[in-house]
Amino acid sequence: MKDYQILKPEVKNGNLVAVDVNGKVVRGVVRDHMLQLALDNDQCIVYNQENGKCYRKDIQLYFDQAPSEKEVEASQKIDADPVLAFIHNSPELIPDTMKISDLKWKYLMRSAVRGKNIMMTGPSGCGKTLAAQKVVEATKRPHFYFNLGATQDPRSTLIGNTHFKKEEGTAFSESAFVKAIQTKDAVILLDEISRAHPEAWNILMTVLDYGQRYLRLDEHEDAPTIKVAEGVSFIATANIGNEYTATRAMDRALVDRFTIIEMDTLNKEQEADLLKMMHPGITEEQSNTIAEIASLTRKEITNEAPKLTNAISTRLSVEIAGLLEDGFTLPEAAEACIYPFFDNDGGVDSERTYIKQLVQKYIGTDKEDIFNAEGVEVEEEV
Prior knowledge:
By secondary structure, this protein is α/β, with parallel strands linked by helices. It has helices at 32-40, 69-80, 82-89, 102-113, 128-139, 154-158, 176-181, 198-208, 252-255, 268-278, 284-300, 314-325, 330-338, 351-360, 367-371, and strands at 4-12, 15-19, 25-26, 43-48, 54-58, 118-121, 143-147, 160-165, 169-174, 187-191, 214-216, 225-227, 233-238, 259-262. Helix 3 (82-89) packs antiparallel against helix 4, helix 10 packs across helix 11 (284-300) and helix 12 packs antiparallel against helix 13.
């Protein structure tokens, strides 16, 4: 290990720092974000002095107690295999603006490297598409994007179509998807698959099946069969839940063709940290307020008799933070961003009235001001 320096995250005088095996503080080597992740996951930092890269490793391999023979063997096996080393060191590639556990990220990267079909699930705005895009960046593989939720003609999008030219007669034009599946080691993002037309699912059945992996060009006069190239990985994103009214219940046979990775919803503290990171111009109080309001809406929809049918997503929280950073007030941001997402039917019993009452608790103006326009009576407690 002469080319490596082992560092441990510690809090000294209220500051998170990296210390070596002798307890000496080492500065300018490890990013604050990586140090925090190492502390949260009970890990140490292995600093490669030759190439300047840092990796997070289980702390017991280097501190506190001697590792077992199996742990040493597993670590040596990982270090000796470039693919395994890439997978297990891949958490260092997690961007600061994305919150995902090391385990789920490694599972995601491993599935992509091994050419698996991956389905990212979770609520809207939790980072499914971002995670898929980061896989493409990390692996540096050719990539293609198809928004299945916006596709009105699945056969044209996934297979191609025929057209007539006076000089040439009837001709077939294959789709961009046909080109994509023939590209070796490509990553193909199938966004919003839960909103796709059932015909798109039927077309994808043989493409995604590991025992078949082909697409038949039915529109072509010869109906040729196109094989999926070696190493191609499909990453689909799906919103699953009763609140997503435009989604469809997916066929179990289709779902079974994927490795499922469920993205987590951020807790209040994580969301507040993310908002402050993405919009440093807002105050800590503002980021905490936005995260608190969003958290309360998510909690409400889990009640037995919820007063809301949808919650404020992380994507919407980020937009609100951006407005505050640009000088908008919370009442203005709420009027522009939050209220339009909630139903106004039902008068004083509407979802919009409820969300206004909720937001009002965090606004330091007279309660009547924000409700006078619609003559809504405000309750003291929600």
